[in-house]
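Mods, move this if it's the wrong board.
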Amino acid sequence: MSAQLEERTYHFANDVRNFCRKLTWDVINQEDIKQVVRSSGSVEANYIEANENLGQADLRMRIRISRKEAKESIRWLRLLHIETKKAELESERSRLIDEADQLRKIFSAILLKLGDK
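Not the wrong board. Structure tokens:
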């Protein structure tokens, strides 16, 4: 597996955390922030575990989980409420959604290469 992709997943999780620190902490956002922080971190954690896999079945499972968590990150990022006067946050959110989608596609490609769907 790739050390570059491991670093990329780290940056994604870190960027999500930095983004969430800028958001309004209200009752609804609070729950969505917790979810996106968890899912983005899980993308990274499971990819690290995939790099230390215990065999092909473990590798496939960890990559599948990373892909699933990338998809969930997209969902939670989309649900976060951003005040309209914060256009720079919308731009950052779009960038993070794009990165999560690119990671999802990378994990899908890895699974195809491993003979998985």
